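Structure tokens please, single chain.
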Amino acid sequence: MRAFSLLACGLIILALGVAGCTTTPETPAPVSTTAAPTIPPGSPIVGFWVLESMVSAGTPVTLVPGITISETFGPEGRISGTDGCNQHSGTYMVTGSQIQVGPNLASTMMACEPQVMDQASTYTRILVSPASWQVSGGRLTIQAGQSILVYVKQVPTVPTTAAPTAPPVLSPVGSWDVTSMTYMSGGSSVTKSPPDAQIYAIFGSDGTVQGFGGCNQYSAGYTTNGSSMTVGDIISTLMSCGNVYDTQERAYLGILGAAARFENTGTQLTIFDAGTPGSKIVFKPGTETPVPIPSAIMGTWSLTGMTKNNAALTLASGVTTTAVFGSDGKLSGNGGCNQYSGTYVLTGSSAIGVSPLATTRMMCPDPAMSQETSYLGILQNAAKWEYNSASGKLTITDSTSMKNTLVYTKS
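Here you go.
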């Protein structure tokens, strides 16, 4: 594989702005150098909930009869459910009585009756807003200002008899090598086989997909429902390997990210694009395994330096900023005011990509708040990492022309 330079391929979701939910600054909780779990063990929010009532901006909403809206809040910070029209999935975080869902949710793209679509839009807008939550009397209440969602907890029933009417759909779980792709180019449908650079995908049973696009490593979350498939935001590193490889990788990740349906015959996996008829990826069984993450980057790190726009910033006194790079590709930490979490992916010995980061929504006084904003902006645009064994320092450089940096030491 030939790598010529680092440049943005348009495959990284831009950084989320870090903004508060209140206008009055709130005294931050003591900062820990170790990131707290996203969902406290035994949290009552965990479970399957069905929407009972909804209030939008102070006005009660009459729910469409016969339409079920539900959510499953997982103990690992994952959420999945339906808005009554489309399935969706993503992440959520709770901090005390505060909750933040998403805000980036992967969703199917079905069209429904207008009143169902309107109800789904109102529901989703409230769901992803910063809010408070409580569980009482078997009901979960999520309140964002004057908008309120009330759910009733349900226990999924297990049928006493199981008589399948159709053969079960084979799961995509496993390692798969690309044999061909069909996509639109210049207004025409083009079918190509990969060049000498192998393209592959590894679908895990944990709802994650990772692999190699011909130039860069990538990862994402995915969900399936029967033969339907939804792939979440794809993160990748930012290497360039020349026009042939870059063009093909963009086409591959574009189809994968827009997946709507899959077919698995056991000897061939085909993924179909949701938006472009005829666009598809065809795979054969592969033997690849997840690329191990180097031990040099793993662990808990404390920020000791930051440069922005070619100038070294003086870090705020008494503010501790941390990053925890896990062996499973998960990234979490404290930005100096708020907890954050996401994922990361590496290619080769120096390229790195970071997903959009979910954060809590506390407001802190400056300089902690402005420092956190700069920190998260650089981290979410990360393009290169380097560990200096002599100094014990980890340096992250972003993808902007200014080459902003974050410097850490091991906690």
